[in-house]
Amino acid sequence: MGTEKKRLMISLTEEQNNELEKLAKEKGFSKSAIIVIALEEYKKGQKNA
Questions:
Q1: For residues 30 and 24, is the Cβ–Cβ distance under 8 A?
Q2: Pairwise CA distance, residues 29 & 34, whole Å
Q3: What confidence tens digit (pLDDT) does each residue in 1-49 have?
Q4: What is the C-alpha to C-alpha distance for residues 44 and 28, in angstroms, rounded to an integer?
């Protein structure tokens, strides 16, 4: 991953936002970090498909 970061705005349902906040609190990460981790895991899964 590069060091330059881009800001992104996304729209989530209330339920999705609640789940994201819950995961972030449980794991001790920011919501942004949870999304980045999810994207990296998705990419890994696509390579193995």
A1: yes
A2: 7
A3: 568 999 999 999 999 999 999 999 999 999 999 999 999 999 999 998 7
A4: 23
Cα torsion through 30, 35, 41, 42, rounded to 10: 170
Give this prediction's pTM.
0.81
**Do the Cβ atoms of 21 and 31 come closer than 8 Å?**
yes
Residues in the chain: 49
Residue with tokens 């920011």: 30
Q: How far apart are the C-alpha atoms of 20 and 35, rounded to whole Å?
A: 8
Separation of alpha carbons 24 and 28, rounded Å: 6
